[in-house]
Amino acid sequence: MWNSMGQDGRLAGPKSVWEIPVDSYMLGNVTICFPGAEWAILCDGKEHLHVLYTPSRAAGEPWLCYHSLNLGKNNSCYILHAIHRSMPGSQQIDCIVSSVEDKSCLPEDVTFSQKSTFIAVLEWISLRCAQNIQVWTKKRTRKLASPSFPEYAAIDSVGDAICVISQGHFVMFYDSNGLSKAQKVEEQDPKPPLYTYIQTPEDITVYFRLPQHIKKTDIQIKFLPLHIEVSLQGKCVLSGQLGNYIDTGKSTWIMDGEKLEVILSKSETGLMWQELVKGNIQGEELMDPALINEIHSRLAHLTSETEAAPSDKVPFNLAQLEECDLSNEPLTFQRIDGNQHCETHRVHMGGHQWLFSQQICPESLPAVCLRHDVDGILWQ
């Protein structure tokens, strides 16, 4: 039904823009989502998913059904989120349909630690059509499962991924294009840094490990006011712009067995560099023990060796808490890649109480509102 409000503030009266088929209307709770300015996705609650063209919603023009997809669900299902994408020569609508299914629908290799007969299933359906030919077809279907129903599920159009907030972890167990076989990456020992360095307010000492049987004549080091180049046996191992200016006349290097020490004298004494060579991440800074002791001594007046005695006072009155103030929901945010079928991000919500989610604009993911103390903070 469509309705409008006149200038006098009164409703003009409802008008039908599209009628749900009677046979499907009686099946379940109807959910609708508006992925774009001219498109709507409607689920009748069990069997059918309808793609509706909704031109001039403000004028109340009739809606047109361009495609109906049979979901074949035995249980109630709902639309959680939908997006519309325009691509060269075509357009696509992605939607998430949620339902509760028997655990027997899962493959044998997908198991959950929770002993439950039923699971939550998210069906990620992709529909596509040509720009000028409004014939929609189902392009792809992906399914995810979890032992708990999600508080939030949305499609990230930027990276073709799905974002979920739930008490349980979701796993993608089906893709009509085929599941990718995850390659096991063998754990390797971390690679040692190419160099290490220690800085003081006056200079920086850089340490390199030297190969065996190297001679002093095999080492070439070029000092410039804002640049350094280190070569070993004709191979350049470090070259780039320094973090700040050095005094080339006072900078030098020493060969000590299988170790090379390069001493850079700072032009500006007392300035601590943020990095040795800009953009180079092959080295590691080591803290100077003397500098650490100096920092500790400067902060000594802010610390105490006497442990504070615990207080018997309660910071707030427990009787003032209501049932809604207590949250034991261990919620977790997941981002699952739709092509690699693996989890790319996982964030624990830190025990903050879930309040609601809100779609602020169709182009962005729905915002999430979490409780922080007595406030609700909106995250996006």
Annotation keywords:
380 residues, mainly beta, Immunoglobulin-like, five-stranded antiparallel sheet, five-stranded mixed sheet, 24 strands, 4% helix, 42% strand, elongated, cytoplasm, NUDCD1, NudC domain-containing protein 1, CS_dom
Report on the structure:
This protein is mainly beta. It has 2 domains: 210 residues, no CATH class; 87 residues, Immunoglobulin-like (Sandwich). Helix content is 4%, strand content 42%. The protein is built from 2 helices and 24 strands. Strands 5-6-7-8-11 form a 5-stranded antiparallel sheet, with no helix packed on it. Strands 17-18-13-12-19 form a 5-stranded mixed sheet, with no helix packed on it. Strand 9 and strand 10 form a beta hairpin. The longest helix has 10 residues. The two termini are 32 Å apart. It is found in: Cytoplasm; Nucleus. One of its GO terms (cellular component) is cytoplasm. Keywords: Cytoplasm, Nucleus. It holds the Pfam family CS. Its main location: cytoplasm.
